[in-house]
Amino acid sequence: MTSTSTTEQFADVSATTLLRFATAGSVDDGKSTLVGRLLHDSKSVLTDQLEAVEAASIKRGQDAPDLALLTDGLRAEREQGITIDVAYRYFATARRRFILADTPGHVQYTRNMVTGASTAELAVVLVDARNGVVEQTRRHAAVAALLRVPHVVLAVNKMDLVDYAEPVFAAIAEEFTTYASELGVPEITAIPISALAGDNVVEPSANMDWYGGPTVLEHLETVPVSHDLTACHARFPVQYVIRPQTAEHPDYRGYAGQIAAGAFRVGEEITVLPSGRTSTITAIDALGEPVDIAWAPQSVTIRLADDIDISRGDLLAPSGDAPATSQDVEATVCHVADQPLTVGQRVLLKHTTRTVKAIVKEIPSRLTLDDLSQHPEPGQLVANDIGRVRVRTAEPLALDAYVDSRRTGSFLLIDPADGTTLAAGMAGEAFATAKALPVADAASDEGWDF
After folding, report:
1. Phi, psi values for residue 294, rounded to 5°
2. What would the DSSP string read from start to end of 108-174?
3. Do 312 and 238 contact (CB within 8 A), yes or no?
């Protein structure tokens, strides 16, 4: 590989037609049926899969195939008629490839929506046309905004049950768009559909001639997706140090991991964080072969000119674009555990490949979903709460702001006693239209180790 081909290589990467998207919505809004309809009508279902769904539907006394069974794979999901786990599906059309995460709608499983949407470039939020925007709809819109999902589709489902009435759709679209815009969602597209009947999912609906926009699949195929990896801050979390110490490789020392963002080049000066030591990249090995350049999300081994004390959890970054390190983390978190998160609680903070001890110093506010107001000093966060936290870590961390890097600006808070994930955090400002948070009184440091 030569440096003269770098531009062409990045052009190829940028042109990759892959869209990661997630579906979300309240229970019985029809998420799994929509996904099943997408797969079925785009001819992305294998014959044996469709036969299995038809057989299962007949056993349940249904006349037509229940397309939701294409995604609800767990027995408990089929028995209860709800989605529990995140179901990932891979399909393709002539215009684009897709990775789809069908996430649960029940409030108990909101944590799984966070998982499914964390890497999504688009979120499809379903609303039952009969019920309109409900609390769980607002919660999913808030999660999508917090996770900085750049595109949101409002799919107003079950239009067949409201006689395909345009005023019903218009009212729901206006309410949701106003709410999501206040959260800072940059792009919202509203589409009236019937997932069960197939209206405006893959084919345009003959029952809604008043709607002139795209179908769901057409929008998924044409929505612009940025893959400009060269514009990202280059970050390389070290996962493993390779030292064979064999006769063939007596002095080999390489740092293996997956590039989180941006690109690294041979000859580039880098800074090792949190130590701050600097060196120069002498070689990059990818799939056992030397290369001049590597970019996210490639897994590579980087070799440096100097023998520096580097271990798992350290971060390599270009010296001219290295993030600041700090032991004080201010972030927005989605609380996903059954046990509450409280002020003074000792936790583990996992950031990329680094895990450190930490203490929750403050919980300045909790988000009230109804009016987007901040409830000051709640004292704790319980399951499915969204709030601001201030955490003090035992060791410095090199976090980016989440708005700059979804990968290196995110972290997990973990219970050190049993390894339970407590909260998913996004460093920096909460929403794109961040409002001033209430100023909390400084908490006492008495009894804290760091």
Report:
1. -145, 150
2. GGHHHHHHHHTT-SEEEEEEETTT-S-HHHHHHHHHHHHTT-SEEEEEEE-GGGGTT-HHHHHHHHH
3. yes
Query: Rounded to the nearest 10 degrees, what angle do helices 166-183 and 135-146 cross at?
Result: 40
191: CB partners within 8 A, 6+ apart: 153, 154, 155, 156, 200, 211, 213, 214, 215, 216, 219
Task: Kindly state the DSSP code that residue 189 receives in the 8-state scheme.
Answer: E
In SS3 terms, 233-278 reads as: CCEEECCEEECCCCCCCCCCCEEEEECCECEEECCCEEEEECCCCE
Q: Which of 348, 361, 328, 373 is nearest to 423 (CA)?
A: 348
173, 176, 177, 178 alpha-carbon torsion, rounded to 10°: 120
Report the chain's mean pLDDT, rounded to a whole number. Answer: 83
Helices 110-117 and 135-146: crossing angle in degrees, nearest 10, is 30
- Return the structure tokens found at 312: 């798992």
pTM of the model: 0.79
Cα dihedral sign for 108, 111, 115, 121?
positive
How far is the first Cα of the chain from the last one, in angstroms, to the nearest whole number?
48
Q: For residues 66 and 317, what is the distance between their CA atoms, to the nearest angstrom?
A: 50
Angle at 266 between CA 262 and CA 271, to 5 degrees: 65
Strands (E), 336-420: 341-342, 346-351, 354-368, 373-376, 380-381, 386-397, 410-414
Report the distance separating Cα 158 and Cα 60, nearest Å: 22
> Residue 250, CB half-sphere, CA atoms under 13 Å: how many?
1
Encoding tokens for residue 151? 């595109």
Q: How far apart are CA 28 and CA 106, in angstroms?
A: 9
How far is CA 227 from each of CA 151, 231, 262, rounded to the nearest angstrom? 14, 9, 11
SS3 (DSSP) at 185: coil
pLDDT at 392: 98
The answer on pLDDT for 142 being more than 60 is yes
Q: In b/e form, how buried is each residue of 16-55, taking b as 16+ CB within 10 angstroms? A: eeebbbbbbbbbbbbbbbbbbbbbbbbebbeeeebeebee
- Structure token pair of residue 141: 């819109």
| Local confidence band at 252 (pLDDT 50, 70, 90 cut-offs) | confident
* Contact status, residue 103 vs residue 86, Cβ threshold 8 Å: yes
75: Cα within 13 Å, side-chain hemisphere: 0
Query: Could you give the CA distance from residue 286 to residue 293 in angstroms, rounded to a whole number?
Result: 10
User: What is the number of other CB atoms lying within 10 angstroms of the CB of residue 165?
Assistant: 14
